[in-house]
Write a structure and sequence with these properties.
Chain lengths: ~450, ~425
C-alpha cells in the first residue's frame, strides 16, 4: 500500500505529525529507530524533570525543613531509585504515545529510516532486516543528538552526554559540566542538590546565554549560594581522559586544570540526518525548508530540531502540525515559529518569552521595563520561595509587551500567560485590566506591568 | 449512498447564494476537482468544484435558483444508483470554504468546496475577520490603526484564525488591497506641544466626541455646496415690533428667529425637495418638516428637534424653541428631543456674525446659517440711498440630494416669506 504520509522520527515533531495526519483521516506510518517519544520523552525534557523533582524535595527537606518548623532526621536517598523513578515516568509516557498511534490508526514501524527517493523509505530494523515503505508524502523529523567537544569524544563513562548523565549507575563525587545552557544548568542543580561537587564552565559572559542578563546574573548568584562553582567567560583549552577521570584545563576567569571522575559535555546539539538521498542543508548542517516546510526534494518535508534552532520540543510539535496541515490542505498557509517560551527547570526556575533587554536595545526599540521581586509577593513568602523576580519589557509607543523574563520557583508555569499576551499583541492596558487572583505568584506579572508605567501598588 | 452537494458558505455575511449556471447536467460523470457550477454570493461570483467523483444523479436547484446555506443543490451517485426525487433534510451546518476552515475542524471538507477563483482572496479574508460584524483584531493592531486612521474592516488578517495583527495594519497601505479608510477615519495631524509645555490637555467629552465624529463624516463624505442671499429684513422687524407691542405683559415675546423658523418651514412645504436625505441607494423625501435648532451649550452645541413644524403656528414654534432652549440649558434634553430632524437652522446673528456657511447635520440634506440683521444704506426703488435692514442667509446643501437650482428655488421662497412676513400669518 501507499501511505498518504510517512514520518521518519517519532519525537515531539514526528509523533505529533503522524497523529495529526491520522486525525485528518490520512494513512500514516511513523518510523522510529529507538522508542516513540524521541529525545524529549525518553532522554530529555521528561526524565530530567523527574530527576529535578527528586532534587527539589531532597534539598527542601535537607536545607529548609527547619524553616517550616519540621525536624527531619536520618534523611537518606537511594540513587538507583531516584534514577528509577525517572525511567518509570518515561516508560509510562512512551506507552501513551503508542496508544495514541493505535487510536489514530498510525502504523508504528520500528527501525532506521532512509530516503530512497520517489516516495520510498527504506527501514532497517534492530536485527538488520530491511523493508521498504511507500508514501505520497514524507516528513523528516529525525531531530538532534548531543554535540561532542572537539578533542574530548564521548565515552559514556568519564566523558558523557546528557543521555548518560540521567542514568548514571552511581552518583559521582565530583562533576565538571562544560556548557551552561539549559541542559548544563539543570544537571548542575540536580547533582549539586544530591551533594556532588559541581563545577560548570561557560565560555560566554553569562550562564543561560540566551536569557536576559539580569536573570542570568541572579541565577548565577543563587547557584553560588547553593555551592555550585560557576566559571563564566572561561574557555576549555585542554582536556585529557585519565584512569581516574578527566582533566580539563581552562582559561579565563581562572587558569587552572579541573579534575573530576566525570565530565558532562553540554555544549549543544547536532543534527541526526536520515540516510539515503541528499537534501539541501543550511550552513550549519540542518535541513533547509521553505514556507511550507518542504525540503529541496519535492513532497519531502521536514520539521522540528532537524531544521535548526531553537531545538525545543514545543516548537518542534508546532512546526510538525503546521507542516501536516499544509501538506493536506493546499489552501492553508502553514505558520512558522515566531513567539515561543524558553524554560529552564533548575531552582530557581527561569522562563522567558520574547525579547531580552539586550535584544530590544540592539533592535533600537524604545521600551519601558517593569520589575517585581517575589520578595514583595505575599504568596511567595507564604510558600517560602522569595527568590527571583518578574521583569517585563513594553514597547514605549503603543505599550505592547515585547519580552517577559521570570526567575523564581514556578517561573515555568507562569510564562504561559505572557506567551498568550504576546501572541495576542496585548498592551500593558490589557495586562493591567486583567484581574490576577490573590494571593498568587502571578500577581507579580500584574505588578511588574504597573511598575513599568509607574503605578505598582506593592513596591 | 448518494453524495449530496450543498450550498457552501462563501462569506460570513452570506445567507444564501444564487446558482448562476450549472456546468454539468443529470447523467454526466463528474471527477473530483471538476468545476460543476458558478455560484453568486453577496460579494462575488465563484466557481464551485466537486470534491467527490460520481455521476450527477439529480439537480435539485435549477440554474438561476437561489438557495440558502446548506441547502442540497444536487446529488452525486455511483453508476446505476438512483438519486432520491427530493433532497434529504439537511443539517443546519453549512459547508465551509477551505480557506475559512484551515486547521479548525478535524472533519475534512465534505461535499463541495469553492476555490477562491473569481473572488479576490482579500475579500474572503475580510469576511473572516469581521465575523458577526465584529472585527477580529489584536489590541496592538487596534491602537496602531487608530493612530494611523486605518479602517480595520478593510484589512485582511494574517494572525491566528484570520485575526488582524500589528503587521497587517503596518503593511496595510503597502499591500494595496487593504486600503486606507474610505469612511470616517482619516489621519489626524497631532498637535506639537514643544512650544507650549503648559498647554492644557482636555479629554474629549461624550458630546465633543459625537461632534467630532458626525461633523467629520459630514464634511468629508457629503458633497457640500453653498448659496448666499441678502434679504430685506425691515418688513419682518416692523411686523415683529407690532406683534410684540400689542401682546400683553404675560403674552409670548416673539424673537426674530421665530419668524425665520416659520419662513423656513413654509419654504420647506413649498420646496419639499430640500426636506430630504440621501440613503445608500435612494433619496428619502420626508412628509413632515422637523426642524433641528442648533443651540450653544457649555462645551459644545446640541440640535434638538421641533417635529411636525409644518403643522405648528408661529406661537407654537416660538414656545417649542423656548422649551428646548431651557431644557438644553438645564441639561434636561431627552434622546427623544434629538430624534428625527430633517433640516437644521443655525443662527449666529445674536453674536454679531454677519454671514457664514454651516456644515450639514447628517443625515439631513441642508442647513441654514442665519447672520445678524444690520442697519445698512440701501438703494431704494426710486434710486436713492436710504436706511435699510438687511440679513444674510447661507444655505449648505448636499449635492447628492439638492441641485443648485433647487436650493435657489428654496431661497426664493424664503425671501418671499421674510420680505412679505404677512404671508406667514395667513
Amino acid at each position: 500500500m501507499k501511505y498518504d504520509l510517512i514520518v521518519i522520527g517519532g519525537g515531539p515533531a514526528g509523533y505529533a505529525a503522524a497523529i495529526r495526519a491520522g486525525q485528518l483521516g490520512k494513512t500514516t506510518a511513523c518510523v522510529e529507530m529507538d522508542r516513540a517519544g524521541g529525545t524529549c520523552l525518553n532522554w530529555g525534557c521528561i526524565p530530567t524533570k523527574s530527576l529535578i523533582r527528586n532534587a527539589e524535595i531532597y534539598r527542601l527537606l535537607q536545607h529548609h525543613a527547619g524553616d517550616f518548623g519540621l525536624g527531619v532526621s536520618g534523611l537518606t536517598y537511594d540513587w538507583g531509585k531516584v534514577v528509577g523513578r525517572s525511567r518509570g515516568v518515561s516508560d509510562k509516557l512512551a506507552g501513551g504515545i503508542e496508544f495514541l498511534f493505535k487510536k489514530n490508526k498510525v502504523d508504528y514501524v520500528r527501525g532506521k529510516g532512509s530516503l530512497l527517493g520517489n516516495g520510498k523509505v527504506e527501514v532497517t530494523d534492530a536485527n538488520g532486516a530491511v523493508s521498504v515503505l511507500e508514501g505520497e508524502n514524507i516528513l523528516i523529523a529525525t531531530g538532534c543528538t548531543s554535540r561532542p567537544m572537539p578533542g574530548l569524544p564521548f565515552d559514556g563513562e568519564r566523558v558523557i552526554s546528557s543521555k548518560e548523565a540521567m542514568v548514571l549507575a552511581r552518583q559521582p563525587e565530583e562533576i565538571i559540566i562544560i556548557g551552561a545552557g539549559a541542559i548544563g544548568v539543570e544537571f548542575a542543580y540536580f547533582f549539586n542538590a544530591f551533594g556532588t561537587k559541581v563545577t560548570i564552565v561557560e565560555m560566554l559572559p553569562q550562564i543561560l546565554p540566551v536569557e536576559d542578563e539580569e536573570v542570568s546574573k541572579a541565577l548565577e548568584k543563587s547557584f553560588a549560594k547553593q555551592g555550585i562553582r560557576v566559571l563564566t567567560e572561561t574557555k576549555t583549552v585542554g582536556s585529557q581522559v585519565t584512569a581516574s577521570g578527566v582533566e580539563i584545563t581552562v582559561e579565563g576567569r581562572t587558569n587552572e586544570t579541573l579534575r573530576a571522575p566525570v565530565c558532562l559535555v553540554a555544549i549543544g546539539v547536532q543534527p541526526v540526518l536520515p540516510g539515503g538521498r541528499e537534501i539541501k542543508k543550511t550552513e550549519r548542517g540542518y535541513l533547509k525548508v521553505d514556507d511550507r516546510y518542504q525540503t529541496s526534494l519535492p513532497k519531502v518535508f521536514a520539521a522540528g530540531d532537524i531544521t535548526g534552532p531553537p531545538w525545543l520540543a514545543h516548537t518542534a510539535t508546532f512546526e510538525a502540525v503546521q507542516a501536516v496541515e499544509g501538506i493536506f490542505n493546499p489552501s492553508y498557509k502553514p505558520r512558522k515559529v515566531e513567539v515561543f517560551p524558553g524554560c529552564t527547570y533548575c531552582q530557581p526556575q527561569v522562563a522567558s518569552v520574547g525579547l531580552t533587554e539586550k535584544a530590544a536595545k540592539e533592535k533600537g526599540l524604545k521600551y519601558k521595563v517593569g520589575r517585581f521581586p517575589f520578595q514583595a509577593s505575599g504568596k511567595a513568602l507564604s510558600v517560602g520561595e522569595p527568590d527571583g523576580f518578574v521583569k517585563l519589557l513594553f514597547n514605549e509607543e503603543h505599550g505592547e509587551i515585547i519580552g517577559a523574563h521570570i526567575i523564581g520557583s514556578e517561573a515555568t508555569e507562569m510564562i504561559a500567560e505572557l506567551g498568550l499576551a504576546i501572541t495576542l499583541e496585548a498592551t500593558y492596558e490589557d495586562l493591567e485590566a486583567t484581574i490576577h487572583a490573590h494571593p498568587t505568584l502571578s500577581e507579580a506579572v500584574h505588578e511588574a506591568t504597573s511598575n513599568a508605567f509607574g503605578h505598582a501598588i506593592h513596591i | 449512498m448518494p453524495t449530496f452537494i450543498e450550498m457552501p458558505k462563501l462569506s460570513d455575511t452570506m445567507t444564501e447564494g444564487t446558482l448562476l449556471q450549472w456546468h454539468v447536467k443529470e447523467g454526466d460523470a463528474v471527477r473530483s476537482g471538476q468545476v460543476i457550477a458558478d455560484v453568486e454570493t453577496d460579494k462575488a461570483t465563484m466557481e464551485m468544484e466537486a470534491f467527490d467523483s460520481g455521476v450527477v444523479g439529480r439537480i435539485y436547484v435549477p440554474a438561476g435558483g437561489r438557495a440558502p446555506l446548506g441547502a442540497v443543490l444536487m446529488a452525486l451517485v455511483a453508476e446505476g444508483e438512483e438519486a432520491p426525487e427530493t433532497p434529504p433534510a439537511t443539517s443546519a451546518a453549512p459547508v465551509a470554504v477551505p480557506v475559512a476552515a484551515p486547521v479548525a475542524a478535524g472533519a475534512p471538507t465534505r461535499g463541495a468546496a469553492v476555490p477562491g477563483s473569481a473572488a479576490p482572496v482579500a475579500a474572503v479574508a475580510v469576511a473572516l475577520t469581521t465575523s458577526g460584524g465584529r472585527v477580529k483584531a489584536s489590541p496592538l493592531a487596534r491602537k496602531i490603526a487608530g493612530g494611523r486612521g486605518v479602517q480595520l474592516s478593510a484589512i485582511a488578517g494574517t494572525g491566528p484564525g484570520g485575526r488582524i495583527v500589528a503587521r497587517d495594519v503596518i503593511n496595510a497601505p503597502a499591500n494595496g488591497a487593504a486600503a486606507v479608510a474610505t469612511g470616517p477615519a482619516p489621519r489626524i495631524i497631532r498637535p506639537v506641544l514643544d512650544f507650549d509645555p503648559k498647554a492644557e490637555r482636555v479629554p474629549l467629552s461624550g458630546m465633543r466626541n459625537i461632534i467630532a465624529d458626525r461633523l467629520l463624516v459630514s464634511k468629508t463624505t457629503i458633497p457640500h455646496f453653498y448659496l448666499n442671499v441678502e434679504l430685506d429684513a425691515a418688513p419682518l422687524m416692523k411686523l415683529r415690533k407690532q406683534v410684540n407691542d400689542t401682546v400683553g405683559a404675560d403674552g409670548n415675546k416673539f424673537t426674530v428667529n421665530d419668524f425665520i423658523l416659520k419662513a423656513m418651514v413654509l419654504s420647506c412645504v413649498d420646496v419639499p425637495e430640500v426636506n430630504a436625505a440621501f440613503d445608500v441607494d435612494a433619496i428619502i423625501r420626508y412628509q413632515s418638516v422637523n426642524i433641528a435648532v442648533a443651540i450653544a451649550v457649555p462645551d459644545g452645541l446640541v440640535t434638538p428637534v421641533i417635529r411636525n413644524a409644518q403643522a405648528k403656528s408661529m406661537l407654537e414654534l416660538s414656545k417649542a424653541v423656548k422649551v428646548l432652549a431651557e431644557r438644553a440649558k438645564t441639561k434636561k434634553l431627552s434622546p427623544d428631543d434629538f430624534a428625527g430632524g430633517t433640516i437644521t437652522i443655525s443662527n449666529l446673528g445674536a453674536y454679531g456674525v454677519d454671514n457664514f456657511d454651516a456644515i450639514i447635520n447628517p443625515p439631513q440634506a441642508a442647513i441654514l446659517a442665519i447672520g445678524s440683521i444690520r442697519n445698512v444704506p440701501v438703494v431704494s426703488e426710486a434710486g436713492g440711498i436710504v436706511p435699510g435692514q438687511r440679513m444674510w442667509v447661507g444655505m449648505s446643501c448636499d449635492h447628492r440630494v439638492i441641485d443648485g437650482a433647487v436650493g435657489a428655488t428654496y431661497l426664493q421662497a424664503l425671501r418671499k416669506y421674510i420680505e412679505n412676513p404677512a404671508l406667514m400669518l395667513v
